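Below is how a single chain appears once it has passed through the pipeline. First comes the sequence as given, then the structure the pipeline wrote out for it. We keep one example in the README because the format questions we get most often are answered faster by looking than by reading.
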Amino acid sequence: MPGRQCPFCNSAVNPQARYCPVCGRALPQAPPPEAVVEGAISGGRHIRVQGETLNLRELVNVVESGVRWWQSGLTSGDSVTRARAAQAIEELSRILHSLSQQLAQGRETVRITTRLPELRPDTIACPTCGHMNRASAKFCLGCGTVLSGSSYTPSAKGHAMPLRLTIGARTDQGRVRAINQDTVYAGALARSAGETAYLCLVADGMGGAKAGEYASRVAAEVTRSRVTNDAGSRTPQDAAAWQELLRGAVLAANKRVYEDSRSDTARKGMGTTLTIALIVDDQLHLASVGDSRAYLLNAAGVTADGASTAQLTSDHSLVARLVDIGQLTPQEARVHPQRNLLYRSIGTDPAVEVDTRSEQLEAGDILLLCSDGLINHVTDEEITQIALAKRDPDQICEELVSLANQRGGWDNITVVVVQVKARDQ
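Resulting structure:
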């Protein structure tokens, strides 16, 4: 972990120390970072990615909604809140002016400059459906056929699990929040064919303290129940069907949280992020809403250019889309005071769009899910370094949570780590 030195005697000191243990002098204290504002823009605002572009009118609508969201802060009794709201409105207004000028010039789309990385290339074609798969794949991601050369064969009970998984999970209140609004789950579930799948999820609630905690917990409970029931009663035949199963679970969670928020004034406006990972055989199926992330890591490389880390999910935040079009740099986005203002979340609207994807896993992979309480303090490079250096998933979770807390712990912190190994390892 990064250290800290006493500016008077150059001795190593704890990052949170107030006095040097060697010379005894008071250490300068960094000012606390500005509190991160969490919230969700409601009203059915959407931003669609179309090839290499974003729809400019949709982006303008979301920026306008963000301005309206901040306007409520101008009437706050707290002067700091009013000042922050005024600054946010000013920043968004500048962006809105720039985008509106482009619309006035006849542009309907804006080019994306930052995208999620391209993963390892697929080189093996399925003889049944033609879907391309990775060289190490045991089952076709497209139709589930056992691929030629695999030592795994169907049995009366279904496919054998070709990989061995070790899972760790941890959630922490952090050092500032009065309550933990994150919810985490990681466990096995029985499939209809008699085999086992593994379900992991992270939900980060927002709203009043009790409301946010309730939203994330209910979303997790509904999702777990729905996935367990559907996976136990039928066997989807391909990746698209597994994605649809997860999408149905997320929509059920959204319906329940939204209805509960409408029936109880104390929970009005509550919402939550939700990122789900379902591992079946050697296939990973993801569904996500909000800005809780999923990463894939492997020391041997996980991307087409050999990088050892790849973010698998998109953040459904206005700041993330401004990075996409070059209005902000990724470094600026990490510390931007509006980075947690979401335009898509669970429970804030009667309907929600769900991102889904499927990938094939191989030995050496590490799947990591986390809430933004981790990525607000820890960089992708540091996540990679810690995850690949530790052999135990629980130790990885513990060290990442500890590092986030050392750097302030300004939000709840949740991490799930799934290590993928060959069955004989």
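The longest strand covers residues 196-206.

See the next section for the split statistics.
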